[in-house]
Design a protein that fits this description.
With 540 residues, this protein is α/β, with parallel strands linked by helices. The protein has helices spanning 19-31, 33-39, 91-104, 115-118, 132-135, 140-145, 157-166, 194-197, 205-214, 250-269, 284-294, 354-366, 385-401, 520-525, and strands spanning 4-8, 11-15, 106-110, 121-122, 125-126, 171-177, 218-223, 273-276, 301-302, 315-318, 332-337, 370-375, 409-410, 420-426, 432-438, 446-450, 458-461, 469-473, 476-480, 491-497. The protein starts with a strand and ends in a 15-residue tail after the last helix. Bound molecules: alpha-D-glucopyranose (GLC). Alpha-D-glucopyranose binds at residues 111, 130-131, 277-278, 318, 335, 342, 535-536, 540.
Length: 540
């Protein structure tokens, strides 16, 4: 195998690619280098089809390059940056592996564990839901005693999968193990699990994996590889241990619990997507066995939070939707809560509106990303009704407008037009469908598409199919809309073009908060501004 060193300016990347076949992937990475390096904080990863068998010998870990000259994995808050490590594959293999993920656009995130039994409250005081053990410094013994209340008595995995399906979601990611260290399945490497230690007394993952796949959904597992507040030796994040029972060696923990459990969940549940979380203490040496393990699954997708310089396949952003569209060639995924809590929290009733959520989905899709929307079921397995209601409303919108979301690419505007967002889809005949996602329906029915100098061949509303008309003006394409907005949240117009849609240069400035289209209310509608804290590292 030849080792490649490709450079651009002072950005140099050293990867374990065989020179001839793999170099395009490096060039791809370098092509997106400037934006990626500027703002990336987390990344997601690829997945696999359910039944694929492990394949040996597919990995080659990058030779660590000197920090001063090497392409570095984007640093996470307060953690060191490391030379970038990527999976060895051709661009064609990469595209095939990520195809379903790029087309999915909308997924369900589920935070469920012993913390669900506490509902964000300890000794009468509100404490951050799934971080409750760490924040309230609950002893291991006291925390373990809560597990009897994690009963899953009303858990209906088929109904959960049905809800995801009805919401128009294409994949599910559930916490196989969160930072509390408790697994939702029976592990051979720790008895701190749903079968041996909790009121549930049974495996909770397989029935959901089955139900999801029966609905045609992809199945993903969240696994906290570094933090574990109960099994001895696990990382405590940014704080020291608070109970002598937590004492232990981190490397022993990784070797005896974390890595074997990851192998276990890959073998038992064949997830399509593995969702790492928090990179505390993950050096390149520590990340390497995890990286090599997941790379033996040829279809598996992973996110960007393993740490130690491993880029992963999907760049993950937390609670913030206005982030760079792409980083090092990886698709982005914006995960977000329906209220302000990842897990069940009785005192958090700050539910986002359907309007906000649909506009966030529209915004994320317009930037070519996926929206992973989180719910926090109770310890019995009941999904709070405000979450159910909002998911179903999104599903109703997607039934009519899904064509403008699924399997689309981000719109041609780097800077969104003031009236909304755009997505686009290449047609097999070489033409393009441009979707205008109208957030603010113009009172005079006139919608300007700045910088477009091509005439569409036709145009229609997705709701009802009414035709729209258009004319070319000096400022761009003017679309005349019929009547009132068909949808109070986002109304979609599909315009057909004979070829690719081009935007005249002057209008293609980079999007920044404060630029046209970025009013404060819009920033809030999509979950905040661009100064997001790095995801996956800082505590919520
Ligand atoms: C953060 C939190 C965690 C949550 C995750 C979701 O990293 O530590 O509680 O699961 O974000 O993105």
């Amino acid at each position: 195998m030849d080792w490649v060193c490709a450079g651009e300016g002072d950005a140099v990347i050293r990867l374990g690619y065989p020179m001839k076949s793999k170099i395009p992937a490096i060039l791809l990475a370098l092509a997106v280098w400037p934006s990626a390096f500027a703002a990336d904080a987390t990344a997601p990863a690829p997945s696999q089809t359910s039944a694929s068998a492990p394949m040996a010998n597919t990995t080659q870990v990058a030779t660590p390059a000197p920090a001063a000259t090497g392409l570095m994995a984007p640093p996470s808050a307060g953690l060191p940056a490391y030379p970038a490590i990527v999976r060895q594959e051709t661009p064609a293999e990469h595209d095939a592996r990520l195809k379903w993920f790029r087309e999915a656009r909308f997924g369900l995130f589920i935070h469920w564990g012993v913390y669900s039994a506490l509902g964000g409250s300890w000794q009468g005081k509100p404490v951050t839901a799934e971080w409750i053990m760490n924040r309230a410094k609950i002893s291991v013994a006291d925390y373990k005693a809560q597990a009897k209340n994690f009963t899953a008595d009303k858990y209906d995995p088929k109904a959960w999968a049905q809800l995801a399906k009805d919401a128009g979601m294409k994949y599910i990611v559930i916490t196989a193990k969160h930072h509390e260290g408790f697994t939702l399945y029976d592990s051979a490497y720790s008895d701190w699990n749903a079968v041996k230690a909790s009121g549930a007394g049974r495996d909770l993952l397989q029935p959901l994996a089955d139900a999801a796949r029966a609905q045609g959904l992809k199945f993903g597992l969240y696994y906290s590889q570094s933090q574990d507040w109960v099994n001895p030796g696990g990382s405590k994040g940014a704080v020291p241990p608070w109970d002598p029972a937590q004492a232990g060696d981190f490397d022993t923990y990784l070797a005896k619990v974390s890595l074997p459990q990851v192998r276990e969940i890959l073998e038992k549940y064949h997830p399509d997507y593995l969702w790492w979380d928090t990179e505390y203490q993950m050096t390149p040496e520590r990340a390497r066995p995890f990286f090599e393990l997941v790379n033996t699954y040829p279809n598996l997708i992973t996110n960007s939070r393993l740490g130690g310089g491993v880029l992963g396949d999907v760049r993950t952003s937390e609670q913030k939707a206005n982030i760079p569209t792409s980083s090092l060639g990886r698709p982005m995924e914006v995960c977000m809560t329906v209220n302000n809590s990842w897990a069940y929290n009785t005192s958090d009733t700050n539910w986002k509106s359907v309007h906000q959520l649909i506009q966030t989905l529209s915004h994320v899709a317009s930037r070519g990303g996926n929206f992973l929307l989180d719910i926090g079921p109770t310890a019995e397995g009941v999904i709070p009704q405000p979450e159910v209601d909002r998911l179903l409303a999104m599903g109703r919108w997607l039934k009519i407008n899904g064509e403008a979301i699924y399997a689309t690419e981000g719109g041609p505007y780097a800077n969104p037009p003031p009236w909304g967002r755009t997505t686009q889809k290449a047609r097999t005949d070489g033409g393009t469908t441009l979707y205008l996602q109208v957030w603010d329906w113009p009172a005079d029915g006139k919608l300007l598409l700045p910088g477009i100098t091509q005439m569409p061949t036709s145009g229609r509303l997705l709701a009802g199919g009414a035709a729209v008309t258009f004319t070319l003006t000096d400022s761009g394409l003017m679309v005349s809309l019929p009547g009132a907005a068909p949808d109070p949240d986002v109304s979609v117009v599909a315009l057909e073009f004979a070829g690719p849609v081009k935007i005249a240069e002057a209008t293609a400035a980079p999007a920044t908060p404060g630029a046209p289209g970025w009013t404060e209310s819009r920033a809030q509608a999509v979950g905040g501004n661009a100064t997001a804290k790095p995801a996956g590292t800082a505590v919520p």
